[in-house]
Amino acid sequence: MESIHLNVRSHRKRPHSSTTEPKTVQWLLIGAAMAYLTLFLMIPLGTVFYQALEKGVGVYLAAITDPDALSAIRLTLLTAMIAVPANLVFGIAASWAIAKFDFKGKNLLITLIDLPFSVSPVISGLIFVLLFGLQGWFGPWLQEHDLEVIFAVPGIVLATVFVTFPFVARELIPLMQEQGSEEEEAAIVLGASGWKTFFWVTLPNMKWGLLYGVILCNARAMGEFGAVSVVSGHIRGSTNTMPLHVEILYNEYNFAAAFAMASLLAMLALVTLVLKKIIEWKTARDLSLLDDAETAVEENG
Length: 301
Known about the structure:
Helices cover about 80% and strands about 0% of the residues. By secondary structure, it is mostly helical. The longest helix has about 45 residues, at about 255-300.
């Protein structure tokens, strides 16, 4: 996943090329793309909200304020509140080490960061079951000390952290590699400490990429299904997150409640999309101001 900073910069530097296709072909391609988006995105999204509100606002509010639904919402928020800060710290540390230093095992670390992208979430959940389940490697020790990981909140948090930890790091690594280390070296030469260099030089330069990665990480944490489904045990009112609660309601043919909970996840996706576009706009604006400043400096000699 490339950083939005690199994407925006590459788009800005790409020359505008005229197309030789006739207007009819252009409009056909645009129409086909819009039809595809309407069929596979707009209609399903609209159906979710329609089904959620079909029986009235009262039924909708009753579905999302049900004790089991509130428990699922709380657990989802708790999991995100733990997983996102953990991945934030890891992402900053890993990207800083990879972009600013050369060390043995660097390529291995990059490969491990990408591992959750190539492993099925269900497989990652099974890995935690094999590690912390009753018959797993650490299962007897956990049982002896009356500690629960699988079919409990710790297992859900671990599974969520695993599937989401690449998002922040993969946004920051190409960004920090593009920026180089000249500014940090200059700050250290001028007498700044390591922490001051990080907070006053490194962090401001990567703020938009960092926020972008956090938003994606949070969206995935709240919407994760596969890995969490394996380790949760589907205990109603205890270990069900919002996606798992939607599945249970749908399997019980309680469609109004299922779509009501699904609409909350859909609204989360829409909010994430809006925040993503705002960050991209701010990034493009900052790069435009930077390019204007560089042009002015070059013109003034």
